[in-house]
Amino acid sequence: MSGFDDREKSFEAKYKRDQETLFRITSRRNRLLGLWAAEKFGMPDNKALDYAKEVVLADFEEPGDDDVVRKVLKDFAELGLDMDEQRLRKEMIRLMDEAGRQIEAENS
């Protein structure tokens, strides 16, 4: 039974690492999304960093990406800038890939 227990612990440890990595990548994606949106809004660098933090924090409202999408779309609308959900989600996919590359590079 010891071999089975060791294998189970190994799988649990891998799952935990994978979940932590996914969390880091998603948080980085949200930060990059906030910086991208802030650039579209014409925010200065110091305000852009604050906005990026707001986007990261928005992701803790509910599971999934809908809370982030809702926040960023609302901010585009409030500024009278054209943005739709499909374009925003495409950008989020692009930035998820970029965030994954960044995190992977940091772990190498």
Describe the structure.
The chain has 108 residues and is an all-alpha fold. It has one domain: Orthogonal Bundle (Major Prion Protein). Helices cover 83% and strands 0% of the residues. Helix 1 crosses helix 2.
List the helices and strands and how they pair.
Elements: H1 2-41, H2 45-58, H3 66-78, H4 85-107
Helix pairs in contact: 1-2, 1-4
How large is the radius of gyration? 17 Å
Number of strands: 0
The 3D shape can be described as elongated
The CATH class is: Mainly Alpha
Could you please say which CATH topology applies here?
A: Major Prion Protein
Query: Given the helix and strand composition, which structural class is it?
Result: mainly alpha
Name the beta content range: under 5%
CATH architecture tag:
Orthogonal Bundle
Q: How many discrete domains? A: 1
CATH superfamily (homologous) name: Domain of unknown function DUF1476
Distance between the termini: 35 Å
- Tally of contiguous helical segments: 4
Order of helices and strands: HHHH
Instruction: Assign a percent range to the helix content.
Output: over 70%
Largest sheet: none
Give the mean pLDDT: 94
- Given as residue ranges, the uncertain stretches (5+ residues, pLDDT < 50) are none
